[in-house]
Amino acid sequence: MKLFRSICESCGDSGYVFEDQIEKIKQNSNLKLYPFVKDKTLANGSKWFCVKCDASKKDGSRCKLIELTGDKAKNLIKIRQRETNLKSNGFVLPQLY
Known about the structure:
- The chain has 97 residues and is α+β, with helices and mostly antiparallel strands.
- The protein has one domain (3-88).
- It has helices at 19-26, 34-37, 51-55, 71-88; strands at residues 3-8, 14-18, 47-48, 63-68.
- Strand 1 and strand 2 (14-18) form a beta hairpin.
């Protein structure tokens, strides 16, 4: 599984993008993120969509992706996999953010 960090050039907002999220986006052509993943393999420097800018009526297409590697990325991926496994087994996890 890959982990990306999106960074907006307009507002400076950032966030994590996991590979399983990308696969879900590819399955729903109604999403605004769909054109950014349709028929593409994401890599460093790929264009992405800023939801924060779009919500404030600005150009939301000024984000870039950076692929994260290293220990922190591995730990975040492990946490994501555990969370996904728990949800698929019917557990409801509290929202901490």
